[in-house]
């Protein structure tokens, strides 16, 4: 009671709905692919006679190299210190050194390189830095199919995603020439992924020439997601990087930011360690954003990352394991479905229409009958320009050891043979 004894006025408890007190742009986000997969499999009990094999999530399963584990143990004293958002000079120098060796490009480690907590958070945060959502009709162009972070980053930055469909006839390259001029004129950010997820396609020098010309004409930033760059199958055919392409075309990194990660290269997805590099003016603003965002990389992970970026022997060994898997599994799958060895990355992008099933039906029945998980391609794409370019495909992540991948592939072969016999009956 108040001191004067008067009754305290009641406060209405239904004046505001808590759902109205959050960013309304969150309502524009679509369900993540693996949640869709969970719903698809709801109520399905796979055969207990077969152990589960998952080709669904692109999480590396190879062992983390001992040199990285040793570096972690040797740097545990770093836990007693707050990390600097800009990272240590040692880490920036190690990353710049790797870029120079890998791409033949010299960057200023102080201004053109920035460590990040994995490429995923940086891909998202970059849009929040680059995109001015107050400008009418702001657009972010994304490949289709695509890594769903691109779309979410665009939407929460106040922009509209525009999807550039991949074309199987062009090795799943996007047809950027088909994008209308009025869309390019409103574009503030272009996400590209090379080698691509889920198709494994690598952007060619001619493609980069086209993209740089468009960036020069319309003034948008290119964010090049290259986290799969070190997973390829021929040491004489190394995937072209965006910084390397820029150098070959006689240009600098203006309006170009490349993002990479140790997760796939060095089998440390739990470390969440990567980098952004390129345009110094953009990175300066990005650093400001991240200072408030609070995603500084742990001093322990920074020390371990220095060791990882400085060693190539474990990367070559890792690549050889992937090459062995793809050499074995690709022809097995190709005997029953339409697929070919990708340019790079650790996915097989498989056309399942020959099975007579949709991509979702294929995934569901394969899971039920053979306890193998694959990801429907339609979950990785959006309906755009009259079609969903992921429809009719499934993504197979060959991340486990050779024996498990081979067994999983054989189950897919057996499943498809069973479908063929049923159709013939």
From TrEMBL:
Cofactor(s) required, per the database record: pyridoxal 5'-phosphate
CDD domains, sorted: AAT_like
Keywords: Aminotransferase, Transferase
Top EC class, one word: transferase
Biological process terms in GO annotation: lysine biosynthetic process via diaminopimelate
Domain Aminotransferase class I/classII large stretches: 53-412
Pfam families on file: Aminotran_1_2
EC number: 2.6.1.17
The UniProt record lists the keyword Transmembrane: no
Any one GO MF annotation of this record: pyridoxal phosphate binding
Family annotation (PANTHER family): AMINO ACID AMINOTRANSFERASE, L-GLUTAMINE--4-(METHYLSULFANYL)-2-OXOBUTANOATE AMINOTRANSFERASE
Protein name (database record): Succinyldiaminopimelate transaminase
């Amino acid at each position: 009671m108040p001191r004067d004894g008067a009754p305290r006025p009641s406060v209405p408890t239904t004046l505001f709905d808590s759902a109205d007190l959050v960013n309304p742009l969150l309502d524009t986000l679509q369900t993540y692919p693996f949640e869709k997969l969970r719903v698809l499999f709801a109520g399905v009990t796979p055969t207990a006679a077969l152990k589960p094999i998952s080709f669904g999530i692109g999480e590396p399963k190879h062992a983390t190299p001992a040199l990285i584990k040793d570096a972690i143990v040797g740097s545990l004293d770093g836990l007693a210190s707050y990390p600097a958002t800009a990272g240590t000079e040692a880490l920036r120098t190690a990353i710049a050194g790797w870029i120079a060796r890998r791409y033949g490009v010299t960057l200023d480690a102080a201004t053109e390189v920035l460590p990040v907590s994995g490429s995923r958070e940086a891909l998202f945060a970059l849009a929040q830095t680059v995109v001015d959502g107050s400008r009418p009709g702001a657009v972010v162009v994304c490949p289709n199919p695509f890594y769903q972070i691109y779309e979410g980053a665009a939407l929460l930055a106040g922009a509209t995603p525009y999807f550039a469909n991949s074309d199987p006839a062009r090795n799943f390259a996007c047809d950027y020439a088909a994008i209308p001029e009025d869309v390019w004129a409103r574009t503030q950010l272009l996400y590209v992924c090379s080698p691509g997820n889920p198709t494994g396609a690598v952007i060619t020098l001619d493609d980069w020439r086209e993209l740089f010309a468009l960036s020069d004409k319309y003034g948008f930033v290119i964010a090049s997601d290259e986290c799969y760059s070190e997973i390829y199958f021929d040491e004489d055919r190394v995937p072209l990087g965006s910084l390397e392409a820029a150098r070959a075309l006689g240009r600098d990194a203006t309006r170009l930011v490349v993002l990479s990660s140790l997760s796939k290269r060095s089998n440390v997805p739990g470390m969440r360690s990567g980098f952004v590099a390129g345009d110094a003016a953009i990175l300066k603003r990005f650093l400001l954003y991240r200072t408030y965002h609070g995603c500084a990389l742990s001093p322990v992970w920074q020390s371990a990352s220095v060791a990882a970026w400085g060693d190539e022997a474990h990367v070559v060994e890792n690549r050889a394991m992937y090459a062995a898997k793809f050499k074995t599994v690709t022809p097995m799958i190709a005997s029953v479905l339409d697929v070919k060895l990708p340019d790079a990355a650790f996915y097989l992008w498989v056309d399942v229409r020959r099975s007579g099933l949709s991509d979702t039906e294929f995934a569901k029945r394969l899971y039920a009958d053979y306890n193998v998980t694959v990801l429907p391609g339609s979950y990785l794409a959006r309906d755009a320009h009259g079609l969903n370019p992921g429809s009719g495909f499934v993504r197979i992540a060959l991340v486990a050891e050779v024996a498990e991948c081979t067994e999983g592939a054989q189950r897919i072969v057996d499943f498809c043979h069973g479908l063929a016999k049923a159709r013939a009956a």
